Amino acid sequence: MGLVNMNLLNYLWETGIKPIKNAIAEKLDSSKAANNLLTTEEGFYLDARQGPEIMSMIEEQNSNLSELRGDLTAISKYKDINVTVPNGDIVGTTTVTGVNAILAVSIVYNTTFFSTSAIATVNSSNRVTVKRFEQTSAQTFTVRVVYI
Predict the structure, then answer these.
(1) How far is the CA of 6 from the CAs of 17, 26, 118, in angstroms?
(2) Which pTM value belongs to this model?
(3) Which residues make Cβ contacts (< 8 Å) with residue 55, sequence separation at least 6?
């Protein structure tokens, strides 16, 4: 391996690094850097100095979500309901009464056939649907309903 001398360094600068630096400078016009979070005009890019401000906003949102999760945990309740999928069908439904709003549903267990795959969903009318992925004999699924 040869020695690195000033001529070689100058050659690398002039033919490699400098052209790349100039090409980047042409593409990123520093007058188009927006050092604020309000610029909406096309052709501007966000200045890196806004990073801490954006991070602060994200951390605040995460904190708010944590507080909300705690509040919902404190006020939410759950109950288990049975949803039967009839023989030869893949869908069974039932309406949950006595609740204001359902936050989540999940299948706790299948009381008749443990290897069947299924999902539980809910609509805005508190109607819980269980959909299984194959047609078999009638099955009853226990669904946990989290509500407020």
Answers:
(1) 15, 28, 71
(2) 0.44
(3) none
Q: How far apart are CA 121 and CA 102, in angstroms?
A: 10
Length of the chain, please? 148
pLDDT tens track, the chain, 148 positions: 567 788 888 898 999 999 998 888 887 888 888 999 999 999 888 989 999 999 999 999 999 888 877 776 777 788 888 888 888 788 888 888 888 888 778 887 655 544 457 888 888 888 888 888 777 788 888 888 888 7
Kindly list the distances between the CA atom of residue 26 and the CA atoms of 16, 43, 92, in Å, as whole numbers in the listed order: 16, 13, 62
